[in-house]
Structure formats: structure tokens, C-alpha cells
Amino acid sequence: MDNWKSLYIYFISGTGNARISSEWIADEAGKKGLKTVVQQIDRLENIVIPRADEKPLIGFAFPTHGFNAAPIMLRFIAGFPPGLCKEVFLLNTRAGMKLYKLFMPGLSGVALLLPAFILWLKGYKCIGFRPVDLPSNWIPLHPGLKKKVIESIFIRCEKIVRKFANKILTGKKVYKGLESTPVDLLLSPIALGYYVGGRFFLSKTFIANYNCNNCGLCIKECPTSSIKLVGTRPYWKLTCESCMRCLNHCPQRAIEAAHGMATAFWIIFTAVNAQVFIFIINTLNIQPDVWWWKLTAQVIGIGGMILIATVLYRIMHYAMGLKAVKYLVRFTSLTALPFWRRYRFLKNSKNHSTSVK
Ligand SMILES: Cc1cc2nc3c(=O)[nH]c(=O)nc-3n(C[C@H](O)[C@H](O)[C@H](O)COP(=O)(O)O)c2cc1C
């Protein structure tokens, strides 16, 4: 089917990769004379939905978070109205790296499979599955890539995305993202663990160090409105999706993923958890290897982890008022090391608002 009259892309992007990918696709569609609407979904109140007479092709672009689509996109797709068109496509940006001359791909997990399934339940057929390995923004795990490496990854990915756009816009199907399905399915338990627990823990590892001058940019720019001012310092709520926009864009380089603090939280959680389990097992006389206890223990464990991290984070937030704590947190954060680069998206692309051509 190649008689689309318009292209609608809904995207979410922490650091610009999914945004520029959407714009490359829209650019190709524009060359073919299609009306293009590219929208960032965090401004939900302004979302424009296509009319049937516009004969739209609809696409969704988003980063991969914890081997899954970014939660904000999953929620958007789950609430997306059915019946607006027949065919849709999906593009997930992943953690691209480069080792000498070798481009290293990220891992999708269920980032394409799950949204495609939800859309299929709504009557949409996915004709394009495309992972794109743009520079990794996962700065708590590794320093940002060097500018030269970022440039070469961009050159490669732009070609890939434009080729993908041309294929789907001329009615071809692209199933590139399904080639790794066996590996992706093996990763699905980790994707589930990240979705129900890991991301909440991560949201409690961000802290503003003493460079913070309260400019408020992180609060204003957060796509999920998850940063608020508590006292005089930014405070990350559980709704934070660790998209890395704040950490990478802070003009003062004041935001840290506090590794030392997170490790301390984890040690305390593990110790408390063990005591709670021993208490429950002894009090209720439970056989620890029965299946229902194993399942219950997982639920208690995840709930306990989120609760303990939240309480400790609140305490740490106030304790950061003490100079000694502030310095301790900063000097146990790998992201504070001078060589720990942030990820800066290269091109000065359009702003985050709707663009219609
Ligand atoms: C919390 C978090 C989790 C991530 N998980 C994955 C992952 O499972 N697989 C992967 O390939 N990349 C992963 N990444 C890397 C991003 O998906 C990747 O850098 C992406 O290109 C960022 O796109 P954006 O700039 O549009 O946000 C993760 C990044 C973050 C911050």
C-alpha cells in the first residue's frame, strides 16, 4: 500500500535520538509530497490525531529502556485510539557504541514486540520494525562517547533511517527488528524486572550536587514532569523514567547518578529484606521452596525495594544540606569524575514541539 497522503509520527526522546530519527523519516515523506506531522508525546494535551480522509501512515519512535519501549510510550500506545489507519511502523533507538571501527548494536528485548502486540490488539498491522543504534545515552553505566565517535554513528544511522523510511513509504515491509527475536525473548524476564522494579530504583539514584544553581531547567525539561523542587534542591519522583535528559543537559553539570548512594541503598535493602523474609517464614511456618512463596517473595522484595529506596532517598535529600554528605555523595559518584562525559546530541535540531509540514 503506497497511497498514503500523510505521515504522523509520535515520538518520545530523552536526549534527541528518537527525535532526529523521526525528523529524518518525516523529511523523506515530505520529499514524496506527504503532509507530515511529528509530535513529541510528553505534551499530551496537544496531541493531533489524523482524520481518516488524510490516509495516514502512523509511526511511533522511542528509546529502548531496560529491554523494553520507554514506559511513557507504552502508556501512549495502550491509550492510542483504534481504527485511525490500517498500517503502522515502529522505530526504537538503542545504545549504539563503536569499538575501534566496529559499530556495536544495542539490544531491543521486547521494545518492538510489545508495542506491536498492543497495536495488533487494536487492529493495527505493523509493517516496519526498525531498531536504530544511535549513540548510547546510558551515562550511569559508561561515560558519554567521544564527539568523533558520535559523529560517525550519526552518519551511519541517518542513512539507515532514511533507507527504512523510503522502503515503508513505497509500500515495502521492513522486519529487520524481528531478526533478533529469539535473543529478545530471552531478555524478556529482565525487561519485566526493569519495568516493575528496576526503573523505580533508578529514579532514586539521581541527585543534584553542589554545582546546582537552581536554574530550574531540569524541572522544566523533564518529559514526565518527575522533578520537583523540595527545599532548595531538585528531587526526583518515582515517575522518573531515567531518560537522561536532565543529567545530560544540565548546564552546570550538577546532576549525578549517585553510585555510592545507590550501593548503600542496595546493601540496606538486602539486609532488611533478608530479616523480613526470615521473620515471615518463621512466624507463618512456610516452606521456602514452595512456588507460591517464591512468587510472593518476589512481590514483597520489589515492593520493599521501592519503599526502602524512597524513604532513604528522602532522608538523603535532606542530609545533602550537610557539607560532608554532599561531598561524600559527589565523590562516590562515577559521573562526577572529570573524564565522565555527558551525551550531547550533535545537531541543533528543532525544538520539542509539534512540527507540521
Ligand atoms: C535507563 C536506560 C535504559 C536503557 N536500556 C537500553 C536497552 O535495554 N537496550 C539498548 O540498546 N539501549 C538502552 N538504553 C540506551 C538508549 O535506548 C539509547 O541511548 C537511545 O538511543 C536513547 O534515545 P533518546 O535520545 O531518544 O532518548 C538505555 C538507556 C537508558 C537511559
Task: Describe what this molecule looks like in 3D.
This protein has 357 residues and is α/β, with parallel strands linked by helices. It has 2 domains: 6-186, Flavodoxin domain (Rossmann fold), CATH 3.40.50; 198-336, Alpha-Beta Plaits (2-Layer Sandwich). It contains 11 helices and 12 strands. Helix 1 packs across helix 4 (147-169), helix 6 (188-203) runs parallel beside helix 10 and helix 9 crosses helix 10 (291-319). The longest helix is centred in the last third of the chain and has 29 residues, at 291-319. The protein starts with 5 loop residues before the first strand and ends with a strand.
Q: What's the helix and strand layout?
A:
Layout: E1 6-11, H1 17-31, E2 35-40, E3 56-63, H2 71-78, E4 87-93, E5 97-99, E6 102-104, H3 113-121, E7 125-132, H4 147-169, H5 181-186, H6 188-203, E8 206-208, H7 217-221, E9 227-230, E10 233-236, H8 245-249, E11 255-257, H9 259-284, H10 291-319, H11 323-331, E12 355-356
The structure holds flavin mononucleotide.
Flavin mononucleotide binds next to helix 1.
Brief rundown of the structure:
The chain is of the alpha/beta class.
